[in-house]
Amino acid sequence: MSQEQQTIDLQQYEGTLQLLKHAVEGLDGEQLKRKPAPDKWSVTEVLSHLTDHNIVTTFRIRQIISEEEPKLPPFDQDPWVSRTRANESDIADIFAVYQALLTYNALLLRRIAADDFNRTGINVRGKSVSLAELLKAYVDHVHVHLGQIDRIKQAVI
């Protein structure tokens, strides 16, 4: 992976917070917590999930950089959202944690060697995943949830 490509990927990763903030701009607290159906997530829960996913990604990044072919941990997103009572979270707190994770990871990702982006771990499906692929998958995951946020907004507002 070239240094130029690495920079683009980091900018996309770091830019996810602004995309999420833009997606919820103008929503009040009640709208953020309203669910389209009892078994569906609210916008707050989606944002909490993405922060949880960023926590897991933070760990996976360090595993890939530091270990030889580590087994990357899975997580079961629905209990993480429901059992942590994510819908009771304050959006400002969620964004503060998300920002801290972005900053912490970006500091690390800027100081590692370009070759480290080719290091790999093994995902739950047994597939080898490079650090570069992990970061791209995270950004893609955020984009999937941006679509979900748009659908929730249409359903509840």
From TrEMBL:
SUPFAM superfamilies xrefs: DinB/YfiT-like putative metalloenzymes (SSF109854)
Highest rank taxon of the organism: Bacteria
Annotated source species: Paenibacillus filicis
Coiled coil: none
UniProt cross-references to InterPro entries, sorted A to Z: DinB-like, DinB/YfiT-like
Protein name listed in UniProt: DinB family protein
Record-linked Gene3D superfamilies: dinb family like domain
Boundaries of every DinB-like domain copy: 12-149
